[in-house]
Amino acid sequence: MMTYAEITGWGKCVPPAIMTNDDLATFLDTSDEWIRTRTGIEERRVSAVGTSTMARVAAENALAAADVDATEVDLIIVASCTADEIIPNMASKVQQDIGAKNAAAFDLNAACSGFLYAMHYATGAIKAGMHQKVLIIGAERLTRILDWTKRESAVLFGDGAGAMLLESSENEVGLLASKVSCDADARDVLSLDFGLGFDRYDFDGVMPFNFEGQEIFKRAVKGMSAAIEDVFKQTGKTVDDIDALIPHQANKRLIDFLGKMCKVPEGKTMVNIQKYGNTSSATLPIAFCEALETGMVKPGDTIMSAVFGGGLTCGAGLIRWGERVTPLGDNQKTLPEDGPSALDLILPLYKGSKAAWENKGRG
């Protein structure tokens, strides 16, 4: 009998501090209209806590939704490009915080494609009988790495986390087919010069963030289109079989393109970029949570997801949802509401970046 990886739990964590487009316009040469018409974004969240804290909250919510104790989890995969530390990995911190003492734990960095990559490999591990209950998490604190003097990239991103629990099942549900890939010839069009190539003894306060928007968009369209077609070929399904589209939330124009390609009406295409911006690996699980909360996803629905991110990584997956669309337990745990405002968190970063670039120019 075939084994499948059923999605039994889901949860998200979005920071309470909201930065609107009008807030950004107080220190950047931009406007609400300029941002909305080009991206579809109206606001984004800014976290006062580390990425691992958001990951932990999302994980606890996913476990609550599945009514599964953390000790039953045997693998944790955290997808992120903004981990709190280089060593040890963030997944081990989540394991410690939620008490999943029986789980193996590792991080995965495929940028915005990270969560689908995690689902792809977690599903394979469950189908192979290597694991029974896998917790996958996408978590990002992108606002800490942006150059806030660069309007073209600073307006796009936000913070957040989302998680799913996958369990071994005989039901033909979960990720039924997927395709992941990487267009490494263009890996430099979306990059942040940091990590082990970073000279910490000669740091001038500027972390070069390269974001070539037009080239990224062009390759995203090509990459996601190819991945979706590959998934259709694997399954024998067509656009007529798709009940909902839940894509990566990078740009409203890109989401609209995918909707037309999959012939999914607007009401069945999940769009929440206006509230959160691009939260990289967290966009997909947050979008799934909200699709379930709003009733967009129905029992037995066939869902197409597509992602694209730095690397340039890419992927698509065909998911059949199970019979349960409501959580078994309370999966609405949130971060404390009494923290600093988004502007209080971002203005020091903006001033630091501006001063660093001025000093660099004088040098």
From TrEMBL:
Localization annotation: Cytoplasm
Record-level Gene Ontology MF annotations: 3-oxoacyl-[acyl-carrier-protein] synthase activity; beta-ketoacyl-acyl-carrier-protein synthase III activity
Segments forming domain Beta-ketoacyl-[acyl-carrier-protein] synthase III N-terminal: 106-183
Hydrolase among keywords: no
Active site: 112, 248, 278
GO process annotations (BP): fatty acid biosynthetic process
Record's keyword annotation contains Nucleotidyltransferase: no
Any one Pfam family match given in the protein's UniProt record, by short name: ACP_syn_III_C
Lineage top rank: taxon: Bacteria
Keywords, in A-Z order: Acyltransferase, Cytoplasm, Fatty acid biosynthesis, Fatty acid metabolism, Lipid biosynthesis, Lipid metabolism, Multifunctional enzyme, Transferase
Reaction(s) catalysed (UniProt annotation): malonyl-[ACP] + acetyl-CoA + H(+) = 3-oxobutanoyl-[ACP] + CO2 + CoA
Pathway: Lipid metabolism; fatty acid biosynthesis
Function: Catalyzes the condensation reaction of fatty acid synthesis by the addition to an acyl acceptor of two carbons from malonyl-ACP. Catalyzes the first condensation reaction which initiates fatty acid synthesis and may therefore play a role in governing the total rate of fatty acid production. Possesses both acetoacetyl-ACP synthase and acetyl transacylase activities. Its substrate specificity determines the biosynthesis of branched-chain and/or straight-chain of fatty acids.
Subunit structure: Homodimer.
Family note: Belongs to the thiolase-like superfamily. FabH family.
Designated name of the protein: Beta-ketoacyl-[acyl-carrier-protein] synthase III
This protein's encoding gene: fabH
